[in-house]
């Protein structure tokens, strides 16, 4: 369970960094809307990493906390060196939120088998956020 939560932590932190990067670097006609939306999203992600790490600690394991560890554990790609255009940022964040949701969903069987309700509750909360965020971002890509 702790290993799976470590992957979720790495995915969440990586998505946090990507979203914050895009907040800083977004340009174009959607600047104000995206700048503010990305700030809301990275703030939510920042607030999510602590409960995930603390759950890992509650299970008696150390939580990963370095870029090297996160790089080995995450399922998300790093952002391009050159900031992409706004719509590409949105697409990358859709994929990132979908990936984090997949990671969270993959842990439910382990939590169920272990009768680990606190972890299942945490996973449900994260899954709700990432599925909703992906939906809202996908809606912005429709013509």
TrEMBL record:
Q: Which residues form a coiled coil?
A: none
InterPro entries reported for this sequence:
DPS_DNA-bd, DPS_DNA-bd_CS, Ferritin-like, Ferritin-like_SF, Ferritin_DPS_dom
Please list the residue ranges annotated as the Ferritin/DPS domain.
Answer: 4-142
Signal peptide span: none
Q: Which GO terms describe its molecular function?
A: ferric iron binding; oxidoreductase activity, acting on metal ions
Q: Which Pfam families match?
A: Ferritin (PF00210)
Q: Which family does it belong to?
A: Belongs to the Dps family.
Q: By what name is this protein known?
A: DNA starvation/stationary phase protection protein
Q: Origin organism of this chain? A: Comamonas aquatica
């Amino acid at each position: 369970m702790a290993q799976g939560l470590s992957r979720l932590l790495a995915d969440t932190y990586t998505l946090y960094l990507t979203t914050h990067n895009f907040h800083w670097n977004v340009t174009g006609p959607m600047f104000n809307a995206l700048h503010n939306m990305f700030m809301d999203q990275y703030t939510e992600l920042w607030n999510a990493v602590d409960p995930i790490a603390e759950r890992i600690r509650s299970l008696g394991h150390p939580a990963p906390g370095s870029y090297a560890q996160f790089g080995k554990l995450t399922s998300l790609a790093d952002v391009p060196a050159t900031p992409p255009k706004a719509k590409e940022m949105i697409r990358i964040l859709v994929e990132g939120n979908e990936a984090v949701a997949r990671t969270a969903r993959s842990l439910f069987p382990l939590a169920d088998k272990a009768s680990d309700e606190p972890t299942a509750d945490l996973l449900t909360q994260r899954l709700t956020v990432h599925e909703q965020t992906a939906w809202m971002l996908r809606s912005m890509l429709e013509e």
